[in-house]
Every structure is written in C-alpha cells, then in structure tokens.
Amino acid sequence: MTQKPNPLNSIQIDGPIPAHLARAVIEETLRSAILDGRLPCGTALRQQDLADLFGVSRMPVREALRQLEAQALLNVIAHKGAVVAPLVQGDAAETYELRILLESEALRRSIPLLTDADIELAAGYIEEMETQNDYSEIGRLNRLFHMTLYSKAPNRRLLRLIEDGLNEEERFLRFNLEKMGLGKLSQEDHRDLLRAVEDGDIERSVKLLTQHLNRGVEVVARFLDSPVAINSKKI
C-alpha cells in the first residue's frame, strides 16, 4: 500500500531555533503553511511531531497551537488534537454580520487618528491589488488594506479580533477568489471607501464599509452553494 505523504515534510526548518523565539517562529511557520495550503484542511498537527520537527520541547508548540486556534486557523478535536480548520467555518452570513459590527466600530475610532502616511499606505495596497495577478497575494493585500484603515483604533483587543476574521477571509480568498470573480468589484469598493476615509466622513465611511462587506457575503454565500465549491472545500 502506498503511504500518504506527510504534509509536515513541506515545512523546511533552517537550523536551531533560539528558545526565546521558539513560540513565535513555530506560530508564524505553521500559519504560513496553513494559509498557502501546504497544510490542508483536516490535517492533524500532533504536538510531539511538531516538537521533533522544530527541535524544541512541547511547551512552545502548545503555545503556538493555542495562538493559531485563537486565529480560527485550527480546531481542537477530541482524540485528534489540533486540526487545520475548514476554509469557511459556520454560517458565512453570521461571520460577516459579526465582521460588520467589529470593523465598523474600529473604523469609527480610527478615522480621526489616521495620518496622511496611513492614507498613502492604504492607497498603495489598492494599486498593488489592481495590478496583481496572484490571487494569494490579492488576499494578503486585501487584509493589509483593511487593517491599515482600522490601525489607529485604540482598542488592541478589538483589532486582534478583526485581524482573526481577516486571516480567515484571506485563507478562503487564496483558494477561491479567481472562481468568484471579486477582483474588480472589490477595488471599486476600496477606492470609494478610501476617499470617504480621507475626507474624514465617518458616517459615509461606515456605510460604504457595510455595503462592501454585505456584497462580499452575498458572493461568498452564492459561491458556497454552487457545485464549484464542493471541490474547494476539499482543499
């Protein structure tokens, strides 16, 4: 019988990891491998296997897995341990409803504190998305654009919750954006949103953000109900 390839073999470790950096290195390495698909949905990540791979004790591995679980990239399942989460968890409409609440509040708090440099940075992400053909990169740039607009909100816990949601969206878009045809629409939305933010118009900015996210959930829900999505869920 042919033995299935071990997904962990796709992860390359360059030399010993300093003890004080172990948790952060393990977290970022596994996060990247989950986002780019090297660790597919449903992959079980056993603490001892990871400790052997990274050449560390199980303690930093355990801490890294907790962080990834908090970011909705892993689920802890009885008798299996940590398992790479599905591309979309739960009801898409409920997920976006929560995002609208959180991101609208962060945008309200952030706009008065944004600088010209922040606006320029956000505009740069839009330009990069406009010319980018790599859908994985578009997902990353989309996350960075939104987080730039929210970045000055003083509530750090709020921002962490928002980034967790954007991480989940980025992972989904990496595999499905081309099939969904969201590219051009998203850029028009982004440009309108950035103009309102630059004008300091909080109410219009929140309204445009809400419309943008609502359009997103409509397209995602429609895609998930389509036959094409069946294969995507197996990634």
TrEMBL record:
A GO MF label: DNA binding
Protein name: GntR family transcriptional regulator
Entry keyword annotation includes Cell wall biogenesis/degradation: no
Domain HTH gntR-type: residue ranges: 20-87
Xref: CDD domains: WHTH_GntR
Keyword set, alphabetical order: DNA-binding, Transcription, Transcription regulation
Domain of life, per lineage: Bacteria
Keyword Secreted (UniProt): no
Source organism: Pseudomonas prosekii
Cross-referenced Pfam families: FCD, GntR
SUPFAM superfamilies in UniProt: GntR ligand-binding domain-like (SSF48008), Winged helix' DNA-binding domain (SSF46785)
